[in-house]
Amino acid sequence: YVLKSSEVLDLLVPILYFLNDAREDSSKIGIMHIGIFILLLLSGERNFGVRLNKPYVTRVPMNIPVFTGTHADLLIIVFHKIIISASQRMQPLYDCLLTIIVNISPYLKTLSMVSSNKLIHLLEAFSSSSFLFAASDNHHLVFFLLEAFNNLIQYQFDGNANLIYTIIRKRQIFFSLSNLPTDMPTIAKFSTKSSGFISSLKSSPDKSEKKRSLFQTHSRSNTDDESTSNGDKLQQSTTVNSSMVATLPETPSIHKMTERTLAASESLNSPPSQRSNINHETSANLSQASTPASSNGGTVSNHNYSTDNGIWTPTSAWAQSWKGKLPLQTIMRLLQVLVPQVEKI
């Protein structure tokens, strides 16, 4: 009854409120587990994904950016907040959070600009070399996000203009991911620079967070010349320069952007009804969420990475084993078609 009526949203909003409230409180980790587990079960039902398209008008006081959109936007924004600002003990739950997004993605008709930016920011953070080479299963998070983007493009393209625009504007993220270096010198360089998943996630600036209001943007622009710190000046200069780019860089050809092998995961070939069953495969992670993720999980075989005194070390063979399977074809073809049209405007 709950799934067939809009009353499921009356259950969703309190859960998201408590998740957002408990994300930085280690004593409330049990609430996080229960709330995410409930949402994981609900996300496997089609009716839940469809109901998320209802506009979000009941403003519950939460420390999140102001937006105008649907309950799906609220869910994505809260999940982004949990992932970016949570403690390291929450990392094993990232698979579950992104699985929920993958399960509901085929049914989301219209995402707001705020939630679209949040999804792209997560991909930007998770696809950084320092994060990918920090643990053996970090690349799984990139697969989840790419699958969610593919679902939105394939099934809900017409209504998601905000997401498409954001993908075009941030297309360099996808180009960099498709051309990710897998040679040992580069891997070793980024591995030594990696200082943990929290720093990797927060190293990518979230511009939507920085532009919450016109007043804040105006205040920052007035204080650019008053900064006395060289580090602050460099960071502000980088932000200003990136925001003043008026032209679109040249889009490489499709064969240069992707591998020649078919870059699509097995789950992407199945319809949404079958793909939503992924929640059963990842729900087991909740029982192990209090411990760090296992380094030998996933589909990468043990011989593709090396260990030194029990410490995992990335190798070129390991990186190549999953890079060629990245489901980038759909997004790359979209960019190949739409970027030239945008350049003509």
Helix fraction bin: 55-70%
Count of DSSP strands: 2
Q: Structural class, judged by helices and strands?
A: mainly alpha
Give the mean pLDDT.
Answer: 76
Radius of gyration: 20 Å
The string of secondary-structure elements, in order, is HHHHHHHHHHHHHHHHHHEEHH
Proportion of strand residues = under 5%
What can be said about the biggest beta sheet? 2 strands, antiparallel
What is the rounded distance between the termini? 49 Å
How many separate helices? 20
What kind of oligomer do you see?
A: single chain
The general outline is: globular
Give, in spatial order, the strands making up the sheet with the most strands. 1-2
* Low-confidence runs of at least 5 consecutive residues: 203-249, 254-271, 273-303
Q: Number of folding domains?
A: 1
Description:
The protein has 345 residues and is mostly helical. It has one domain (7-209, 259-344). Helices cover 57% and strands 2% of the residues. It has 20 helices and 2 strands. Strands 1-2 form a two-stranded antiparallel sheet. Strand 1 (306-308) and strand 2 (311-313) form a beta hairpin. Helix 5 (94-104) packs parallel to helix 8. The longest helix is centred in the middle third of the chain and has 17 residues, at 139-155. It is globular. Pfam families: Hid1 (PF12722). Residues 196-254 are annotated as: Disordered. Residues 228-245 have a biased composition (Polar residues).
